[in-house]
Specification:
Helix content: under 10%
Oligomer: single chain
Distance between the termini: 36 Å
Order of helices and strands: EEEEEEEEEEE
Strand content: over 45%
Shape: globular
C-alpha cells in the first residue's frame, strides 16, 4: 500500500492539529495502521495504532489522553487528532501499514509501508 501523509504545521503549545494519511494500492481495510514520529537526533517511535476494523486503538503513554487515532476505510484514510500539543511533540510524523493483513501494529517492526512524513512543530 502506498501512503501519503499531510496536515502538519506550526502550532503554539496547547493547540491542535489533525494529520491525515491517504492510502492507495492493496486492500486498505485488511491492514492495521499506525502513526509514528521522529524528532531530530532521536529514533523513530510509536505514537498510536488502530486495527483494520478500527475496533481497537493503542497509544504511547506520552500522548494518551491528548491524541486520537481513527480511520475511514471507505475513503482509505487514517487520521491522528492531536490536542493539547507540547513542544516535545515536535517531530516528523509518519503513517505506516503493517506488512501482514489482520495483524496488529505494536511497533516499528512489521511496518512494510511508510508515508513520506509530515512535519509538526510546536512552539512554546
Amino acid at each position: 500500500v502506498l501512503l501519503q501523509a499531510s496536515g502538519g504545521g506550526l502550532v503554539q503549545a496547547g493547540g491542535s492539529l489533525r494529520l491525515s494519511c491517504v492510502a492507495s494500492g492493496r486492500t486498505f481495510s485488511s491492514y492495521a495502521l499506525g502513526w509514528f514520529r521522529q524528532a531530530p537526533g532521536k529514533e523513530r517511535e510509536f505514537v498510536a495504532s488502530i486495527l483494520w476494523s478500527g475496533g481497537r486503538t493503542v497509544y504511547a503513554d506520552s500522548v494518551k489522553g491528548r491524541f486520537t487515532i481513527s480511520r475511514d476505510n471507505a475513503n482509505r484514510a487514517v487520521y491522528l487528532q492531536m490536542n493539547s500539543l507540547k513542544p516535545d511533540d515536535t517531530a516528523i510524523y509518519y503513517c505506516g501499514a503493517h506488512t501482514i493483513p489482520y495483524t496488529e501494529v505494536t511497533g516499528i517492526d512489521g511496518i512494510g509501508s511508510w508515508g513520506q512524513g509530515t512535519q509538526v512543530t510546536v512552539s512554546s
